[in-house]
Amino acid sequence: MISTHSFARRGVEVAHSLVMKRSDDEPDVHQIPPMAALIFLLTCAIFFVLLAAISYTYGHLITTLCMVESPSTNAYVPIESVEPADDAPPAYTEDGVPKPVDAEVNLVRTQPITASLRATVLHLRARAGFWSRFRGLSVYLVWNFARSVIVGILSAASSNPFLVIFASIVAEIALANIHMTWIHVIISEPSAKRWHQRIPTPFLKSWRKIAPAVALWAVTSQIVTILPMLVAGSFGAMRRFDDPNFEPGMKEAYATAGQLFMAMFLTLLLVVLLQIPATVTMVRVAASMLPEEDETIVPFDRTFGGLTTPEIVGGQGKIGIVEAWRSFTWECRRRLLRTVVKVAAIIMTTWILFSIVAMVEAHALFGPAFGEMMKSLHGISHRGS
User: Fold this and answer.
1) Which domain holds residue 56?
2) Looking at the domain assignment, is residue 358 inside a domain?
3) Residue 76 located in a structural domain
4) Could you tell me if residue 63 is inside a domain?
5) What is the pLDDT of residue 315?
6) In this predicted model, what pLDDT tens digit does every residue of 151-195 receive, in sequence order?
7) Is residue 229 part of a domain?
8) Domains in the chain: how many in total?
9) Which one is predicted more confidently, 266 or 205?
10) Which of 6, 285, 347, 361 has the lowest tally of Cβ within 10 angstroms?
11) How many CA atoms lie within 13 A of 270 on its CB side?
12) Pick from 364, 385, 161, 187: which is nearest to 282 by CA?
C-alpha cells in the first residue's frame, strides 16, 4: 500500500509521459492527446462513483438488512395502507352494526420487506429519510480509511502480496468493533447519537465477542478478492502486460475484457459458496449484540428462536458462530440469494454499459494509441498495488 502523496506523484509522472513528446529514438510510439485522455479518465471516474453508490446501497446496506430480517417475526402495517378486496364483506359487531375502521389497527405483513429491492428502499426512505440509501456511510468510510492505514503500516516494508493479505486480515480483526458499529447503525432505527457514541462498550469485552466472527469473514473475503484475479491474470493478454516488449492492441483489449468477465463470474461463485455464509454469520452475531434500547428498522428476532440469553440473566448476550448460520433458515437463504443475484445483475449491467461506452470512446479518441494507454493504466495499477 503506497501513500496518497506517492500515488499522486506516480500518476502525474505517468500522465506526463502520455502527453509529452517522445525522444527521437522512439518515433514509432503514438502520442495520446491530452483532451482525449481527460475525457476517458472522466468517464472512468463517473462509472466508478456510480458503481460505488450501487454497491453500497444494494450490495452492502440492503443485503445486510436481508441477513437480519426475521420472517417469523410479525411485521405490522397500518390498516389504511392495505386495500380491501372488492368483494370483502364489512366487519360487524355482535349487534349487527358495521364496525368503524380504526386507523390504529394493524395487520400482519405476509411478505418480508427485503424480498424486494424497491420495497426495501421505499421502507428505508419512509423510516429514515431520502438519504437513507447511504445511511452509515460516514462510519463505513472511517472504517475503510482506518483499515487502509493499518494495512499500509503493516505491509510498508515489503511488496509481498501475501503480507498484504495477512495485514488486511489483521486490520479487519483489529477494527471489529467499528465494523459492528456500522452494522448496528444500518440495521437500527435513526438515532440521535453520533456513530462514535454507538461503539459497543466495554470495548475490549465487545471485541472479544465479535472478533472470531470477523476473523472468519476477513479470511473468506481475502480469498474471494484475490483468487479470481490470480486465476484470470495467469494466462492470456493479462499475463503479458509485465513484458516490456508487449504491444497490446484492440484484440488484446477484447481478450482482457473477457478475462475480467471470467474473474467476475468466478468471484460470484466464491461469494455464494464462501463469503455469503461467513458474512451472514458475522452480521447476525453483531446483530445479536445490538443494545436493547435500539429498535431495528426491519423485523428482527433478538432471541434467534430462543438460542440467545441476555447477560442480565447469566447468558453471553450474543449468538454463537454456528448458531448464527443455523438460525438463518432456508427460506431466508433463498431470499438472500435472490437479492444477491439481483444486485449482481445490476452491477453486471452497469459494467457492460460502461465497457461499451469505454470501447466506443477508445476507438474514437485514441485510435492506434490505445495500446499505449492500456499499458500506462496497467502501470499505474501495478505500481499502486
Assistant:
1) 4-18+31-83+101-119+213-384
2) yes
3) yes
4) yes
5) 60
6) 999 988 777 778 889 999 999 999 999 999 999 999 999 998 999
7) yes
8) 1
9) 205
10) 6
11) 19
12) 187
Q: Which residue has the higher pLDDT, 11 or 289?
A: 289
10-60 pLDDT per residue, tens: 444 444 444 444 444 444 445 666 777 788 788 888 899 999 999 999 999
Which three-class secondary structure string do you get for the chain? CCCHHHHHHHHHHHHHHHHCCCCCCCCCCCCCCHHHHHHHHHHHHHHHHHHHHHHHHHHHHHHHHHHHCCCCCCCEEEHHHCCCCCCCCCCECCCCCECCCCCCCEEECCCCHHHCHHHHHHHHHHHHCHHHHHCCHHHHHHHHHHHHHHHHHHHCCCCCHHHHHHHHHHHHHHCHHHHHHHHHHHHECCCCCCHHHHCCCCHHHHHHHHHHHHHHHHHHHHHHHHHHHHHHCCCHHHHCCCCCCCCCCHHHHHHHHHHHHHHHHHHHHHHHHHHHHHHHHHHHHHHHCCCCCCCECCCCCCCCCCCCCCHHHCCCCCCCHHHHHHCCCHHHHHHHHHHHHHHHHHHHHHHHHHHHHHHHHHHHHCHHHHHHHHHHHHHHHHHHC
The residue behind cell 470501447 is 359
- Give the pLDDT confidence of 107-148 residue by residue, as tens digits: 455 688 999 999 999 999 999 888 999 999 999 999 999 999
Cell numbers at 101, concatenated: 375502521
